[in-house]
Amino acid sequence: MNDYESLIELQAIDLSLDKQESLAEEILTELADRTALDQLEFKQLAVENELSTLAQKQGRLQLELNETKDRISSLTERMYAGTLRNEKELKSVQEEITFLEGVYKEKEETVLELMLKAESYSSLGLSITEKLMIATGKAQERQDSLQTQKHDLEITIATQRAQRDKLVKNITKTLLDSYTQLRTKKGGIAVSQLSRDMCGVCRIVIPSSELQQMKRSKEWRKCSGCGRMIVAG
After folding, report:
1. Model confidence at 1: pLDDT above 60
2. Which of 129, 150, 116, 130 has the alpha carbon at shortest distance from 45?
3. Using CA atoms in the order 201, 204, 209, 215, what is the torsion angle rounded to 10 degrees?
4. How far apart are CA 207 and CA 166, in angstroms?
5. Cα dihedral sign for 33, 39, 45, 48?
6. Which residues contact 1 (CB under 8 A, 6 or more apart)?
7. What are φ and ψ of residue 205, in 5° steps?
């Protein structure tokens, strides 16, 4: 295998490595991506916090209801105990009982609203938990699949790098340096094989005189169209 044949094979390996390494990067990015799970976990935590807040509010209101109920019972007992001295005191107790009964009713309604709200959040929480379980299972399956792909890619990349290391030993340093520089400038494709009388990449026609000289000298030429290294196939 001459320098140019080695160079063409090197480019094929490099292009394949570019693709494999790009896929490996995509896999690593996806392996680290927990966006969907994080969103569900955030929603689950928000629901849990809301339920905790509702429970605290309901607990406080229930204590206030009990205190209000006890106060109403105490005033009612006092009203019928015969200890009130006059009509004014009786009216005052009755008015306080009426007021407290109104307060009790309002707080009771608020407790009911909180219970209904908590029930709604509990249903939402169950739905999110179910979605999270399903998403976690799917994510684990995807992770397992990606890990397998990652392992296979690592083997392929290691094999191709070993092939590359062996191949570059057959190419002169000057030619390899030219290839490396052009590869960087030309999006990974530095070498173009001659296709009849045209550049194999940009398809520009090579003048017949230049073509004959290239074939006689067995040297590469710089394509006047795309600037790549043209070698005879």
Report:
1. no
2. 129
3. 10
4. 36
5. negative
6. 9, 170
7. -80, 130
Look up residue 204 and give its two tokens. Answer: 């520009």
Q: Provide long-range contacts, Cβ within 8 A and 24+ apart, for 176-180.
A: 176/7, 178/229, 179/7, 179/10, 179/11, 179/229
Cα distance between residue 134 and residue 153, in whole Å = 28
Tell me the CATH number for domain 3-168.
Answer: 1.10.287.1490
Q: What is the mean pLDDT of the chain?
A: 93
The token pair that represents 116 in the structure block? 């209904």
**N residues, the chain:** 233
- pLDDT at position 159 over 70: yes
Taking the C-alpha atoms of residue 81 and residue 104, their distance in angstroms, rounded to an integer, is: 23
Amino acid in position 156: T
Q: Are 218 and 175 in contact (CB under 8 A)?
A: no
Q: Look up residue 106 and give its two tokens.
A: 């309002």
Q: Between β-strands 198-199 and 221-222, what pairing exists: parallel, antiparallel or unpaired?
A: unpaired
pLDDT band at 233 (very low <50, low <70, confident <90, very high): low
Domain boundaries, the chain: 3-168, 173-231
The pTM of the full predicted model, rounded to 2 decimals, is: 0.73
Angle, to 10 degrees, between the axis of helix 173-185 and the axis of helix 3-32?
A: 40
